[in-house]
Amino acid sequence: MTGTHAFTGRTLCETACQLGEGPTYDPATDKAFWFDIRGRKLHELHLATMTKAVHNLPFLGSVLAVIDAERQLILSDQGLFVRTVADGRFAPFAKLEDKAANRSNDGRVHPSGALWASTMGRSAEKHSGAIYHVAGERVTKLFSDITIPNSICFSPDGGTAYFTDTDVNRLMKVAVDPKTGLPTGAPEVLSDESGTPGGIDGSVCDADGLIWNARWGANAVDVYRPDGTKVARYDVPAAQASCTAFIGGKADRLLVTSAWQDLDDAARAADPEAGKTFELGIRVKGRFEPKFAL
User: Is residue 201 within 8 Å of 216, Cβ to Cβ?
Assistant: First the structure.
């Protein structure tokens, strides 16, 4: 790794999320979205004006994908729902699985328009989770026996998918069909972080193929090359950095969510920025998230 860079960014939102997760950006509206999974909230921030809205959710939501100007797809512990932007109403779309003890976690849209969506135990029970491929209303289980699925993202050409089980702490890669987002081979270890501090959490892949990973428990965002070489670390003010997203009209800024989950009073006092949402003070070669094809 070439070195650690001190935080030079800013706090985008002072609201402390218990479990900030699932950030994304809609360039058509210049709005960033993220969830407080445990708090059952969807946060919405208009970047140009810094106008903030918070939407109460009837479930534990964790991933948002734009369908079109009127609709969004929401991944939750009760399945997939279509959210109407104008009034915030939800319509059931699809079920991933019939396991009440599970909730949703990480996910991202492949360039083909298919969604990779994941589940895990509500208390991170061992091997309870899975990763699914959602193409329209068709749901296909890809990988099972996962404890904490995270880091789902895709190479710019759509030919490689990345993911992790944070409990195992190995960043994985798998060849996928660029036209469908379905795996065409077996997963391989890209980077074995099992012996290093902190956990591999949410990631996003930039236009050069670099993987920007939020490192839970390490106050950091790590950057990997497509060959698995870690090339940089950027400090984040909160220890439990949870996920990343490219934001802004050029997708050249990086948003980072965080969490205060599992911190007692003493730990929260020692980590006063925990749960807040940040922007790294650097320019990146990001990409806009694909829309979910419906």
Answer: yes
